[in-house]
Amino acid sequence: MAKLELAQRQLEQTSLPLDEIAERCGFAAERSLRRTWNRWKPHTPGEYRRTTHTNTQPIPLNSCSNVIHEQKHEQKD
After folding, report:
1. Measured between alpha carbons, how far is 7 from 22 in angstroms, rounded to an integer?
2. Packing angle, helices 2-13 and 30-40, rounded to 10
C-alpha cells in the first residue's frame, strides 16, 4: 500500500514517466505498478494523472525509499 500511495503522489506532483515512478517507488517494473494500481483504483495511472496533476516540483529520489523504510519500521512496532 505504501508503494501505491507514493506512486500516487508522484503522479499528482511530477511529470516523471511511469517507468521512473515505478522504479523510484520500489516496483520491479512499470508493468508491475500498472497491474497493482489497476487492482487498487478504477482508472489507469495515466487517467489519474490527467485529473489530479498539480505541476509541482519533482519529489526527491530518496523520499520514496525513506517513506517505505519508515513504514516498515512502524509496522514492526
Report:
1. 7
2. 100
For residue 39 the three cell numbers come to 487492482
User: Residues 33, 11: contact at Cβ < 8 Å?
Assistant: no
3-state secondary structure of 19: helix
Q: How confident is the model over 40-57, as pLDDT tens digits?
A: 999 999 999 999 887 655
Helix (H) / strand (E) containing 39? helix 30-40
Burial of 36 by CB count in 10 Å (0-12 exposed, 13-18 middle, 19+ buried)? middle
pTM, to two decimals: 0.69
The 3-state DSSP class for residue 54 equals coil
